[in-house]
């Protein structure tokens, strides 16, 4: 079935098709229409689930944790400060090895107050133990939610997942979306079989106090192993999904015209769509550039980034977030995995914060800057903030 859906409606349909039994969420712009749509599904009898009205995002995640512990699928959604308020219980969900799926609509953090897109909110949670997948369009939002349940629920994984979409660019923008048949989704996901659950007939302790000599460190080691193992499961599940639903997703990185590129731009989210159009226009001018869109930020695509570096002479990493370390988040991870594996120049471009437009014109200037670095073999400055007011270089 084809429908015209916003990104948020696509997220709601992804949840509906996956059949979680408990939804707990608190409204926050620009996420609110996800849970409004789900509430309507439940009220109309189109979705068999319990909707829990809570007083905060912290409580929403706590309710999902409690429900998931009883052995049912759960779902929630949030954004920006709501995600930040969840921080404590995000750690609990991953540490308790609960395969909760959550939609996050990327939104800038205040002050100054903003409701527009920026990826700092999810980047601030990159070490919380959650799998993170960044969607490029509304179809990918829906499909990623379904795939995320199958990946997260594997007993060798058991890690919660964030399915991430850009505020307004996806959340409130309508596109044609293919809605899979419910039976096909049911067959793909199968029945949820929890690895463990609360059972009055078999009482046990969960999350109890552990002394320093106890297995706390071993628990964290097992989480790290599970995140590594998730790479294999992601590959398997994405391939299976492509075959069953006629999709064409790459597991970790979607590459576009990188096979002979002199310079490749690495991006997250919706920037990839604009960048591909710019690549086509620049190729018409004889400029060999390409783009690589990272789908999964956690687990990070280590092997794929290293393989990408072997195809090109320069990598430019675009971040829609910032960090107070040596470059922004995607750049820092990319540079880290390339250390000792390549000598090609790598540069960070920070742009689009607070929803500022990332236009084709700006991206073309960035590509030209990358090509200049390719010729010179030297990065003029490691981190470049693109599009600041008064900066004529990028205007």
From TrEMBL:
User: Is Isomerase set as a keyword in this record?
Assistant: no
User: What is the species listed in this Swiss-Prot or TrEMBL entry?
Assistant: Aciduliprofundum boonei (strain DSM 19572 / T469)
**Superkingdom of the source species:** Archaea
Provide the Pyruvate flavodoxin/ferredoxin oxidoreductase pyrimidine binding domain boundaries. Answer: 15-237
Matches recorded under SUPFAM superfamilies? Thiamin diphosphate-binding fold (THDP-binding), TK C-terminal domain-like
Keywords of the record = Oxidoreductase, Pyruvate
**Signal peptide span:** none
Gene3D superfamilies attached here?
3.40.50.920, 3.40.50.970
Q: Which Pfam families match?
A: PFOR_II, POR_N
GO BP: carboxylic acid metabolic process; response to oxidative stress; sulfur compound biosynthetic process
The entry describes its oligomerization and partners as: Heterotetramer of one alpha, one beta, one delta and one gamma chain.
Q: Which GO terms describe its molecular function?
A: oxidoreductase activity, acting on the aldehyde or oxo group of donors
Residues forming the Pyruvate:ferredoxin oxidoreductase core domain are 261-361
Record bears the keyword Transferase: no
Q: What is this protein called?
A: Pyruvate flavodoxin/ferredoxin oxidoreductase domain protein
